[in-house]
Amino acid sequence: MYTPSRTALLYSLLALASGTPISRSTLAAAGESWTITSMSRNCTASLSECTWTFGIETPIDGEMGAVTDWCEHTVLSPGAGTPATRVPAGESPASSCGKDGRFTVASGWSGVFGEGEGFTVLSVADYAARTIAFPSYRDRDVEGGAVVVPDKNCTVGVIPA
Fold it and tell me: What is the mean pLDDT of the chain?
């Protein structure tokens, strides 16, 4: 069973053994998870633009309870027959969202598993804390503006310095 104090102790021991300081953001990310809530994707009829809307629940100082930041991430069609629902990674600008622009959200679509099996991966980063999560959603789960149920729990990774 995950116990924050054991994880913090482990990281502290590793830091002492290696002589390398471990930052608070690394400790916070170890075993931490965020919950992506009320995810939906709403697109224009022409599929020239899609807006992802969702909440990000994060722990309060690593303790029980959570705070929710609300986000919108808009993806524009690059043209040339590519709808906004199928924009690959790196072809749509990132969005800032949450309280004081805390999070940066980017996305990329993939059809690697064939027609009808497409999905989008979002990167949700808190660069100040050097943490990132990668929730993903199948096209069929967000089609027509449907709200994804259940909410998605995502393991948080550390962004290297």
Answer: 83
